[in-house]
């Protein structure tokens, strides 16, 4: 029997465990009668932090890992298109778009590994403290946390000041007023406890979303028996990606529900005409990014054209 | 031969420390500019990229000098009870072990710099190649490793170390 | 050999290497690297060596370490620390151990500014050790006070320890921060009591100073005003949202440097030397942290935590029994492991057990963080003791470990009090959050 080491930099209670680690383990151990199993190493046991996960798989520290291209966006210029505002309509899932574009446009961004899943998060929303956002004008001069350069440009296009800050410091930043808000998915409300300090949430503008990957060391995959390879192939791709994205949406929906239920919060659902102002302001940012990474084909494939 | 090597090594140690010291002052200045700028709505773009990469130079720039000053912390409870011969052997073993550790670290970081080039890893806002700082890190720890190796050779040839026992309790 | 046997062998070898005065970092590198090689292959060991050294040396939170060291060094060169201690001496010097007491209170104040025990011990050590030496305090008392007082950094908010605990156990950061306040003040008081008892038993440890007149006191405080104002402004800047606790380290260092230039107590050459000294201390501290991050995954790979859980579940110890056994395990692990890595390694295993027994996870968090602090000063791997050693190289390590022992006992007593009276931890969070 062989055990694959799945590196998880998050807590074992994180959405990833049930939706991906356990699912992968259940599927491959059932298909191989326990000859191949997957074991999660949680909380960064195999090396901390989200940024290095891809490298750790290539180096063989872990056999499988999950991560966010956004932490090392220079490696994933075309994959990152899916994170841009209005790349996809809000109600359209990201994983089929990513899988559609993968073979022709994205595969070269994943050298030395076999991607097992690609998916998107719930859509980004405005997570604010003491500031209600109904139009780009409401953002003028506010300090908004960003992680990467394209998010920074989006924030500037809306008239706000981007502040670069690790996600783990956002709680304290919101609490002390160092930043006025963050643009991120609703799952951060529970994952990083932002629900304790933020009090105003604006939904409905297309602010993009996050993208995630699960990759496996190519050499380890190649060394498996045909039966084990087939077991992995059966669950990899569509099935695992859907499981992950669905679970992300469930977590995020629960967080939004909880935010709505708290009477101290203001939850703003933008009307279509209000959304348009954001769309107009952000369209040049997305267009410029797609042009800069020569990503017109990739975007077309993602959008299913 | 050995004195020349010693002189070259000492110069490399000083050069490393020079880089580290400059990097530390640079970090302080960057944080100040960023904080003051942000108060006026104009934060320093990519300040986190700059400070974290400079931090690499701060940490490893001082490594060789730290070792030269005997700054690597050890448990000095029993050294007084060891015979001088054993203390000499320990000093040589420590230097050889440290040398192996730093040279291995340098080699491992060079290998992962290759990976950074292959994956085009850069800092998130300013897009500075990560490999530059990995090469620098590798260079700094290789200097440290070679300095330790040289000292081990000096101890072996001299048949004694510059070992100083801690003050009497 | 089974993985657990490999891990126990590794721990045994670590102890032997440390006793042979192999530097702590080298010993942890060697055992961790070879252990990972044995359990997971050479590629994994090499990969971890390269990624941990680069990742930790570019970590945006650890950057406070060189910055606070620099702040302490510059405060010392410019005479700001001296004037601070002259003020403290004028006010409390005539009490036995008064300066040590003032240092502990200073540690408590610095803890409100920094979320890290390492940063607290480093800065307070740079500022206070040579000063207490000047007033003939016993090095065992002065180093013990700084090593133990520094641990307050993770009990008094803001606290990196509570943030990591909150995320791993899914508890509220705000509640945990509030829960740490009263235990933090209690522990600080216990430290003061310890100093008082020590100086009662051995008056030479903290000799009494001459009494001073009211105007001398006022004058001394006026002289120390720049550093006091700078510190208060830095704390105010964090809570006022001008900068983050991490940036505060850079602002603090920058402010002390600018104040030094403005008052002509600092020139460029002195700044250069202070910075050069700072990177040497940084190298020493960071190498131990990097080594700890090579050593920890070795223990993780050995499945020791799972082994411990199975033993624990099979024993059926009841609420208090389980709690005490878990805290004992933390004390033993804390003797070897770096604190935060230990949290990551063990909390996912203990939290479900504790929560199934109906134990309040906020309360448990306070107990765990306090136990973590004990690990920071307990031999053989006491990170805070190493930190103090790095700023007081002339004091033998054994002496520092002897010096912290009374404070370790004070922590044990505090832990017992907090176990006996959960309300001490839970009162504030229950009052202030719903
Ligand atoms: Na603190
Ligand atoms: Na310890």
Task: Write structural notes for this entry.
The complex is a heterotrimer of chains A (305), B (169) and C (434). The radius of gyration of chain A is 19 Å and the shape is globular. In chain A, α3 packs across α9 (238-261) and α4 packs across α10 (272-292). Chain A has helices spanning 15-31, 53-59, 94-106, 149-157, 170-176, 187-191, 218-222, 226-235, 238-261, 272-292, 296-302, and strands at 2-7, 36-41, 64-67, 113-128, 143-146, 161-164, 181-185, 200-203, 209-217, 266-269. The mean pLDDT of chain A is 93. Chain A is an alpha/beta fold. Chain B is an all-alpha fold. In chain B, α1 packs antiparallel against α2 (47-61), α1 (2-39) runs antiparallel to α5 and α4 runs antiparallel to α5 (130-158). The relative contact order of chain B is 0.16. Chain C has one domain (61-432). The radius of gyration of chain C is 22 Å and the shape is globular. Helix content of chain C is 80%, strand content 0%. The termini of chain C are far apart. In chain C, α3 (42-57) runs antiparallel to α13 (268-301), α17 runs antiparallel to α19 (397-420) and α18 (383-391) packs across α19. Chains in contact: A-B, A-C, B-C. The complex binds sodium ion (2 copies).
């Amino acid at each position: 029997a062989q055990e694959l080491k799945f590196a998880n930099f998050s807590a074992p209670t994180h959405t990833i465990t049930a939706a991906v680690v356990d699912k992968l383990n259940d599927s491959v151990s059932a298909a191989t009668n326990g000859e191949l199993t997957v074991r999660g190493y949680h909380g960064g046991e195999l090396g901390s932090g989200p940024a290095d996960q891809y490298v750790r798989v290539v180096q063989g520290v872990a056999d499988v890992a999950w991560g966010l291209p956004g932490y090392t966006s220079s490696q994933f210029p075309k994959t990152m298109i899916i994170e841009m505002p209005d790349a996809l309509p809000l109600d359209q899932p990201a994983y089929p778009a990513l899988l559609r574009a993968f073979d022709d446009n994205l595969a070269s961004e994943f050298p030395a590994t076999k991607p097992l899943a690609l998916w998107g998060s719930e859509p980004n929303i405005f997570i604010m403290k003491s500031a209600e956002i109904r139009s780009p004008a409401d953002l003028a001069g506010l300090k908004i946390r960003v992680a990467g350069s394209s998010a920074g440009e989006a924030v500037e296009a809306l008239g706000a000041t981007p502040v670069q800050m690790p996600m783990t410091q956002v709680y304290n930043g919101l609490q002390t007023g160092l930043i006025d808000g963050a643009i991120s998915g609703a799952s951060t409300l529970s994952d990083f406890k932002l629900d304790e300090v933020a009090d105003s949430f604006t939904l409905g503008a297309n602010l993009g979303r996050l993208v995630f990957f699960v990759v496996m060391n190519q050499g380890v995959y190649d060394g498996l028996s045909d039966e084990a390879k087939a077991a992995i192939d059966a669950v990899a791709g569509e099935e695992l990606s859907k499981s992950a994205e669905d679970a992300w949406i469930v977590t995020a929906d629960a967080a939004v529900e909880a935010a709505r239920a708290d009477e101290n919060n203001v939850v703003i659902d933008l009307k279509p005409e209000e959304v348009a102002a954001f769309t107009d302001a952000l369209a040049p940012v997305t267009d410029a990014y797609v042009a800069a990474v020569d990503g017109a084909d990739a975007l077309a494939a993602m959008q299913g054209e | 031969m050995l004195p020349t090597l010693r002189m070259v090594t000492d110069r490399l140690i000083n050069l490393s420390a020079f880089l580290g010291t400059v990097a530390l002052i640079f970090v302080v200045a960057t944080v100040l500019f960023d904080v003051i700028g942000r108060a006026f709505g104009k934060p320093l773009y990519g300040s986190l990229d700059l400070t974290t990469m400079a931090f690499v130079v701060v940490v490893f720039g001082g490594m060789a000098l730290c070792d030269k000053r005997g700054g690597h912390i050890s448990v000095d409870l029993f050294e007084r009870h060891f015979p001088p011969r054993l203390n000499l052997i320990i000093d040589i073993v420590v230097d050889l072990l440290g040398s192996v550790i730093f040279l291995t670290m340098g080699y491992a970081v060079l290998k992962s710099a290759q990976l950074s080039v292959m994956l085009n890893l850069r800092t998130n806002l300013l897009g500075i190649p990560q490999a530059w700082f990995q090469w620098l890190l590798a260079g700094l720890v290789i200097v440290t490793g070679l300095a330790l190796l040289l000292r081990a050779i000096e101890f072996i040839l001299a048949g004694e170390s510059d070992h100083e026992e801690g003050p009497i309790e | 050999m089974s993985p657990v046997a490999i891990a126990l062998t590794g721990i045994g070898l670590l102890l032997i290497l440390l006793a042979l005065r192999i530097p702590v970092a080298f010993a942890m590198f060697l055992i961790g690297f070879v252990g990972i090689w044995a359990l997971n292959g050479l590629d994994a060991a090499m990969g971890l060596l390269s990624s941990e050294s680069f990742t930790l040396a570019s970590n945006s939170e650890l950057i406070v370490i060189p910055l606070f060291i620099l702040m302490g060094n510059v405060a010392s060169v410019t005479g700001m620390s001296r004037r601070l201690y002259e003020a403290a001496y004028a006010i409390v010097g005539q009490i036995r151990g008064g300066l040590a007491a003032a240092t502990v209170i200073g540690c408590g104040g610095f803890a409100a500014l920094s979320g890290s025990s390492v940063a607290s011990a480093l800065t307070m050590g740079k500022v206070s050790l040579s000063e207490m030496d000047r007033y003939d305090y016993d090095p065992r008392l002065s180093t013990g006070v700084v090593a133990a007082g520094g641990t307050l950094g993770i009990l008094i908010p803001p606290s990196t320890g509570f943030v990591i605990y909150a995320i791993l156990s899914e508890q509220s950061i705000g509640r945990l921060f509030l829960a740490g306040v009263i235990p933090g003040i209690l522990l600080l008081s216990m430290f003061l009591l310890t100093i008082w008892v020590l100086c009662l038993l051995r008056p030479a440890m903290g000799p009494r100073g001459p009494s001073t007149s009211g105007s001398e006191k006022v004058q001394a405080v006026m002289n120390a005003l720049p550093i006091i104002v700078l510190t208060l402004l830095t704390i105010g800047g964090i809570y006022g949202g001008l900068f983050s606790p991490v940036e505060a380290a850079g602002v603090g260092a920058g402010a002390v440097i600018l104040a030094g230039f403005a008052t002509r107590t600092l020139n460029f050459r002195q700044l250069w030397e202070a910075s050069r000294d700072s990177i040497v201390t940084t190298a020493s501290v960071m190498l131990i942290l990097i080594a700890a991050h090579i050593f920890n995954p070795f223990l993780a790979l050995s499945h020791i935590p799972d082994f411990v859980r199975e033993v624990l579940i099979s024993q059926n110890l009841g609420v208090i029994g389980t709690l005490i056994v878990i805290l004992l395990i933390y004390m033993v692990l804390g003797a070897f492991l770096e604190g935060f890595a230990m949290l990551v390694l063990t909390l996912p295993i203990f939290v479900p057990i504790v929560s199934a027994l109906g134990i309040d996870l906020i309360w448990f968090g306070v107990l765990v963080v306090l136990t973590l602090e004990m690990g920071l000063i307990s031999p053989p791997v006491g990170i805070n003791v190493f930190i103090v050693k790095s700023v007081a190289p002339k004091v033998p390590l054994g002496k520092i470990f002897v010096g912290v022992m009374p404070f370790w006992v004070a922590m044990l007593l505090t832990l017992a009090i907090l176990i006996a009276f959960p309300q001490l931890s839970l009162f504030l969070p229950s009052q202030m959050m719903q």
